[in-house]
Amino acid sequence: MHTSLRERQAIQEQYTIPRIDYARWVLDRCLEWHGDEHVLDLGCGIGEYRPRLLTRWPDITYYGMDFSAGMLRQHETCNRLVQADALHLPFADSAFDVVMANHVLYHVADIDASLLEIRRVLGPDGVLVVATNSLHTMPEMQVLMRRAIVLLSKASAEDIDAPAPASDRFALENGVLHLGRYFYAVMRHDLPGQLVFDQTEPIMRYLESTRSLREPQLPPDVLWDDVMLIMQQQINHLIHHLGALVINKMTGVLIATNGGGFVQEFLGIREKEKSG
């Protein structure tokens, strides 16, 4: 699964327009950094965010945590790496000023239990940073896949949906509702973009990297390889006639807190209004 994730990330980086340092963009949305924060990078993977953090704020205390030992072995050298489950964070109450859970919560078995744990380890003014996708990202891909499945299945077309991306479990839209149960305030930042392909091969690699997530959602009379064959035919046809296949995408970040970051100014204004 981790190899597939890296494959998708690499394709996203190469074919996204406009080109952007996504991790840097996420960090710039977070809060006004003081530079001495204790930060937990939950689901840190190979540590994409660590160098960007420490280059700008070298006095930050960084902890990386991931469920996968294989991912941690690829992480940039760091003596504060922990292998653990997001449902049982091995840290004391109020241990962190910032918890980052970027593109990870939709993989967690129990999102609510994980959010309770995150809230526990955050300080009273702590900030949670969650990068994720929109429910409406890459609609062109979904349309093409649904069309392929409709052609292959004996089921009624009205009963067929394209397999949902894993990120739909915790997306920008429903993520706000999840976070709102446990945090006083949630701010959403959207980042629209496009994937532009002038060749079929990278799109097919992207789709194959999602196989383990999408194949179980197919109708019982439809085979993954047959879906991919029709997808390839459709994509070839579109690129031949249009010159490129443009897929619109929407990703972003949710910032949640009970009293820190952007909320402090708002609460200060309210206190002034009350006292006035």
Structure write-up:
This protein has one domain: Rossmann fold, CATH 3.40.50.150. It is of the alpha/beta class and 276 residues long. α6 packs across α10 (224-242) and α8 (201-209) runs antiparallel to α10 (224-242). Helix content is 42%, strand content 21%. It has helices spanning 2-15, 22-30, 50-56, 69-73, 111-121, 139-152, 172-180, 201-209, 211-214, 224-242, 262-275; strands at residues 16-17, 38-42, 61-66, 81-83, 96-100, 122-133, 185-197, 245-257. The chain is built from 11 helices and 8 strands. α4 (69-73) links the parallel β3 and β4. Strands 1-7-8-6-5-2-3-4 form an 8-stranded mixed sheet, with helices on both faces. The mean pLDDT is 91. It is elongated, with a radius of gyration of 21 Å. The termini are far apart.
What topology, given as strand order, has the largest sheet? 1-7-8-6-5-2-3-4
The overall strand count is 8
> Separation of termini?
57 Å
> What radius of gyration results from the CA coordinates?
21 Å
Round the mean pLDDT to the nearest integer and report it: 91
Q: How many domains make up the 3D coordinates?
A: 1
List the helices and strands and how they pair.
Elements lengths: L1 H14 E2 L4 H9 L7 E5 L7 H7 L4 E6 L2 H5 L7 E3 L12 E5 L10 H11 E12 L5 H14 L19 H9 L4 E13 L3 H9 L1 H4 L9 H19 L2 E13 L4 H14 L1
Parallel strand pairs: 2-3, 2-5, 3-4, 5-6
Antiparallel strand pairs: 1-7, 6-8, 7-8
Helix pairs in contact: 1-8, 6-10, 8-10
Keywords summarizing the entry:
276 residues, alpha/beta, Rossmann fold, 8-stranded mixed sheet, 11 helices, 8 strands
